[in-house]
Amino acid sequence: MPIAFDRCTFAYRRRRYVIDRLNLTFSTGRTVLLGPNGAGKSTLLALAASALRPGAGTVRHESTRTTAKRAQLAAYRRNVAWMPQELSVVPGLTAREQVAYAGWLKGLSRREAWERALGALRQVELGNRADEKVSSLSGGQQRRVGVAQALVHEARVLLLDEPTAGMDPRQRTVFHEALAGLPPSVHVILSTHDTADLEAVYDQVVVVDEGRVAFQGPVRAFLGHADPAAVPGRKADSAYHTLTGGNRTWDS
Ligand SMILES: Nc1ncnc2c1ncn2[C@@H]1O[C@H](COP(=O)(O)OP(=O)(O)OP(=O)(O)O)[C@@H](O)[C@H]1O
């Protein structure tokens, strides 16, 4: 079980609840999180990363919780890697230094972090840009640095918030290959608005809409919600429309 939300409630400051008594246990393997803008996907991932704390309820990875005391929380964070939607570029650092720094923060020794940083950058085809300043890389390349940061400490759960946004088609393929190359013991929960190749890349789909789970199940079951008349390339789009109950587009 990678991550479980038990009766979890969360609101930003004094605003209305983004999620309210949510029960959601993610399955093992590669899960894609879909939903309209503002549905709560980033909030769920940030709660799962322990970057946000629930107002009520718990978020668990195996026996550790995000609401635990310091030592247990550190154990939780070692097992769970998070790539937020907005990558923080550390001024002056090269790609390798930034990725190594992320690994060191997660408990790797300096030497180990430095060695593994290069390997993680190679996984996202940035090995040849390792010594360049992150600030000089393009938006899509910076997102790949973010993916490398999530990969560097070999966590058991990867939480990736729109990792392919801004990547060109070839880099999306490289990214999907990097996902496919992860050991089966590593679970991935990834949010995206990109539904191409759903069946080839992911095992499970979770559709979130207004903070509730509109669908959870294998990709094939998700595609089963498509209009039978939908052509193969439009099935995911059609299933999404059925499950979110409207005429909205992916980005509405
Ligand atoms: N820092 C914040 N302060 C106040 N409200 C926020 C904050 N971040 C998100 N929200 C609100 O919480 C709700 C869920 O937002 P969230 O970013 O989790 O959605 P999302 O599904 O990731 O959207 P997108 O697809 O656009 O990234 C939205 O109503 C949003 O306006």
UniProtKB/TrEMBL annotation:
One of its GO terms (molecular function) is lyase activity. SUPFAM superfamilies: P-loop containing nucleoside triphosphate hydrolases (SSF52540). PROSITE patterns: ABC_TRANSPORTER_1, ABC_TRANSPORTER_2. Keywords: ATP-binding, Lyase, Nucleotide-binding, Transport. Coiled coil: none annotated. Pfam families: ABC_tran. SMART domains: AAA. Residues 3-235 form the ABC transporter domain. InterPro entries: AAA+_ATPase, ABC_transporter-like_ATP-bd, ABC_transporter-like_CS, P-loop_NTPase. Belongs to the ABC transporter superfamily. This is ABC transporter ATP-binding protein. It comes from Streptomyces diastaticus subsp. diastaticus.
